[in-house]
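Support request, please re-run this one:
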Amino acid sequence: MGLYEQLQQRESQGTPLRVGLIGAGKFGTMFLAQVLRIPGIHVVGVADLRVDVAKSNMIYAGWAADRIEAASLDAALSSGETHVGPDAIALIAHHGVEILIECTGNPVIAVDHALAAFAAGKHVISATVEADAVCGAALVKRAEAAGVIYSQAYGDQPAMTVELVDWARTCGFEVAAAGRGHKWKPEYRFSTPDTIWDYWGVTAEKAERGRLNPKMFNSFLDGTKPAIESAAISNATGLNAPTHGLTYPSGAIDDIATLMRPRDAGGVLEEAGMVEVISSFAEDGTLIPNDIRQGVWVVVKATSDYVKNCFEEYMVSTDESGLYYCNFKRFHLIWLELGLSVGSVGIRGEATGTSREFRSDVVAVSKKAMKAGQMLDGEGGYCVAGQLRPSRISVPMRALPLGLTGDIKLIRDVAVDTVLTYDDVEIDERLNAVILRRECEAMV
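Re-run finished. Output below.
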């Protein structure tokens, strides 16, 4: 029986999966727009500090106003409606919620929410992939100890890439590389919320219509989000990060199989088995047709002449050697696809992506020269961008994780384009995110 049929069955039996959502911004609202049409899922509660904004977003996404006016979580549970309120901890603790979707985008807060959910016996689907990059492997260990699931969120590029890698390995292929696409130019590393919409190619009017957060979207552009998502892919699949960070080779979809080969085979990789991001800009700055900017891919290698011949006989598009083939999904629909994670976790008891190790890291790199006493503003802001590094390199150098750069103070001057370290900032070792980060560092 397919997943959708099983959800239909849960609906007909009156036993829907009971879900709580924390964070009803743009991405949380995308899931809320779709869940109206998915059987067998009851969103018992939505927690957001801005209750009025959350309700406005839900109505904008198609929710009837009277469906989100349940006075309490108990009332929502009995009526089949949804309670919208500011208290995430109450939502996590409520007996009627089985699965928590963490969608705040704040890794420090997300770790607190995840640990509280594990303590309450709840599964967690983390749409805050930033937390996964900071301490995902430690979170997975905590979840397993509690007998619950901690999962990456389907619709986001990491979980979709993990699915492609799993497909490849389960079919018996050797994985040469996997990753995502991106619109990338080197100068984007220094982008700020003031420059994002011109770079992104969206008018201010469209950004306002979509209720888009410039700081969040800037994190996509300046390389932070590609680094975070590549770390999540690496830590879930065992693929390695490039020694000096992502290289963003330029290419169309048809070029990926040629690019994503080891250098000794004519490609750009240091070695087989790596994560990478493909740029949709050519070296001259023009956009490449048939790009993978919004999608994900995996490159596999035929490990025998027989398989190579099969590629040829079935007219598979490969590199010129006939050995390397790229499978891909050209677009990801972000949290419009999150229902797959809810169904997989709630029905099948399977995560859609899990960080099994701390193989790759995201380090904070300064966008400008800064003085001691300045407060850092975290992901997508004016101060730092994230870059991917192997953890075996980042941990010994005491590199500061990008996910811990929100609202912390510099204690010494930092030059532009410098990897920050723990010695540059005030770190609160009492934070759960820092405690779990130390556990990950001990794994290296």
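The first strand starts at residue 17 and ends at 22. Residues 158-184+223-332 form one domain.
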